[in-house]
Amino acid sequence: MEELVRPWRLGPRGRWWFDVLLAGTLFLIIPFYAVQAMLDGGAAQDVSSTDHVVDLVLVIIQLVPLLWRRRHPVIVYAVVASACGLQVLLLDYPLVSQLSFPIAVYSVARYARPRWGLAALAVGVFGSFLGAYDWMSTVDASSGGTQGGINWSTYVSVVLSLATFPVAAWALGALARTRAAYVDSLIERNEQLRREAEQRAELGATQERARIAREMHDVVAHGLSVIVVQADGARYAAEQDPALAPKALETVAQTAREALAEMRQLLGLLRDGDTLTRPQPRLTDIATLVEETRAGGMTLAATLPDPSLAVPEGVALTSFRVVQEALSNVRKHAGPGAAARVTVTADGGSLEIEVTDDGRGAAAEETRDSSGLGLIGMRERITAHDGILETGPAPGGGFRVYAKMPL
């Protein structure tokens, strides 16, 4: 899965220097604004040194807190709003540093909880009414009113103009906060999908290792059981009839070579870059398995389906392994001289497998169930294909393995 590209954002150091530049720019504009006011107003503006001190203090209180507007937006807003309130009470003219107020509103809407942003917006709108009233109460008669009076139509226009700043700042801040939350949710979702994909890959690898382990068990158990039986037969033949020993030893060698080849094939799956070069056992290979078992000395009858019968590869492999494991169990647990029967039929959209023997039956049932992974592996294979597996003593004696899988 491709990793989601994160949008470009300023780092902690970049954000700090941006806030320093913002506050510093506003602070540097003030001297030019003061000079221009003096040139425009001249001596008509009787501004004392005390007024300059008050202006400077208010400017500092309004601008310096902006340096911490991201980490403590609510506190910074409270300080800036208080300074703007003092300005309304102490001065009758605006300051350039008042631009810090919409910046503070934006910061609250962007970095604080939504309810704090709404509270900042409400205070900003209320401040627009209060500031417009305070400043317009000093308008002279030439502007359409009387000294100390207010032209209400102009007052409404001024209120709307002033309110535009906090409203726009709040809207931009809320939009930025929503967008950041949306992008973060996309990134988190992408990370979650990536973790889930990795977990599925690990689970698939675990299941594949378990499958290979079952295959290894089937190959080794079947091969070694045949080798042991043939080796015992060769030892007996060497003592009684030496002419039979070479045939038994040939069967041992052939079985060992086949088992070794299958083990190499399975181990190759665990190496990166190796592929399966030998086809998996098919339904027709059960006939070969039966012949090998008969060659090992077991009395075995078999009823097998038409070789041209087409079944899914997974079902064919499972059928072969079930018969292989069942015959291995017959050799190991049924006792000497036990005979077996293998029946594989396909009818009604399902494949049925039955392996029975006339050996020790119930006496060996506990041993078969606890001897290892044989019956457990059978059940896992059958369950994977939505089939059923029945194992236990046969009605007339011996042991029975029955499996049924849908086609």
From TrEMBL:
GO terms for molecular function: ATP binding; phosphorelay sensor kinase activity; protein dimerization activity. SMART domains: HATPase_c. Keywords: ATP-binding, Kinase, Membrane, Nucleotide-binding, Phosphoprotein, Transferase, Transmembrane, Transmembrane helix, Two-component regulatory system. It holds the Pfam family HisKA_3. InterPro entries: DUF7134, HATPase_C_sf, HATPase_dom, His_kinase_dom, Sensor_HK_TwoCompSys, Sig_transdc_His_kin_sub3_dim/P. The keyword ATP-binding applies. It catalyses: ATP + protein L-histidine = ADP + protein N-phospho-L-histidine. The chain crosses the membrane at residues 16-35, 74-95, 116-135, 155-176. Residues 321-407 form the Histidine kinase domain. Its EC number is 2.7.13.3. It comes from the Bacteria. The keyword Signal does not apply. It is an enzyme of class 2 (transferase). One of its GO terms (cellular component) is membrane. This is histidine kinase. It comes from Nocardioides albus.
